[in-house]
Amino acid sequence: MDQLWFTALLNRVFGPAVLALMHTIGVQPKHPATPIANSFAMEVLVTLALLTFFIAVRLRLSVDQPGGLQLSMEWIESFFGDMASETIGHHYHKYHAYIVTLGLFILSCNLIGLIPSLESPTAVAVVPLGCALLTWLYYHYQGLRANGFGYFKHFMGPVWWLSPLMLPIELFSHTARLLSLTVRLYANMFAGEMVTLVFFALVPIGVPIVFEGLHIFVSLIQTYIFTILACVYLGEATAHEH
C-alpha cells in the first residue's frame, strides 16, 4: 500500500497497538505491516484540524470584538442553522450541533485532497458509508426519542390493513437511503479525485487549476446535498404526525 506521510507517521507510532487490537477482535488486516489505511489517517487529520479550529474559536470568543475565526464560525453556524430550520422545523435546535459537525466534517474531508501529499477520504467508499450509517442510526434514534414507540406507526401506513404492504416498502426505502447517501458522495468525490490526478499527470501546469476549482465546487455541492438530506430525514423522523 502506498502510504501518505501522515499515514506512515500513524503506522509508525500506533501501528503495533492497532494490529494487536485487530487480532484481539478477530480481524485480519490486509496489510499487517501498515494496518492504518490512508482514508482512516485522513479522517484523523481532519478531526484534529477541526478540534484545533473549535478550540481556537472558543479561546477567542468576544462579544465586543469578535475576530475573524469567531465571525467565520458564526456564519457557518447560521448557514447550517437556516438549513435545519427550513427542513426540520422549529425544534431543529436539538439537532443543530450534529448537523454542523456533520457538514464541517464532510466538507473538510472533501477539500483536504486539494493539499499536496494528502487525499480526500470521502473518495474511499467506507468513509461515506460510515457517515451515512451514523446519520441513519441518528435520525431513527431521534425519531424514537421524539415519538416513542409510536414512531413505528410510520412504517405501517395510514391504515392498519395496509401494513403488510407498507412495512416492506418502508423498510426497503429507509435501507436504500444508506446506499443513496453513500454512493452519491463517494462516486462524485472519487471521480473528482481521478480527473484531477489524470490531468496533473498529463499537464502539470495551468490546466489542472480548472479541475481544482471543479473539485472545490463538487465538494461544496456534495456537502450541501448530504447535509440537507440528513435534515430532511431528521424532520420526517421527529415530526409528531407519526
Please write out the topology.
Elements: H1 5-24, H2 38-59, H3 68-88, H4 96-111, H5 126-147, H6 163-202, H7 208-238
Helix pairs in contact: 2-4, 3-4, 3-7, 4-7, 5-6, 5-7, 6-7
Describe the structure.
By secondary structure, this protein is mostly helical. The chain has one domain (45-238). The chain is built from seven helices and no strands. Helix 3 crosses helix 4 and helix 4 (96-111) runs antiparallel to helix 7. The longest helix has 40 residues, at 163-202. It is globular. It starts with a helix and ends with a helix. The mean pLDDT is 88.
User: What is the H/E order?
Assistant: HHHHHHH
Radius of gyration: 21 Å
User: How many β-strands, per DSSP?
Assistant: 0
Question: How much strand content do the residues show?
Answer: under 5%
How many H/I helical runs? Answer: 7
Shape: globular
What is the first-to-last residue Cα distance? 49 Å
Structure class: mainly alpha
Helix content: over 70%
- How confident overall, as mean pLDDT? 88
Q: Give the low-confidence spans.
A: none
**Tally of distinct domains:** 1
Major sheet size, sense and barrel closure: none
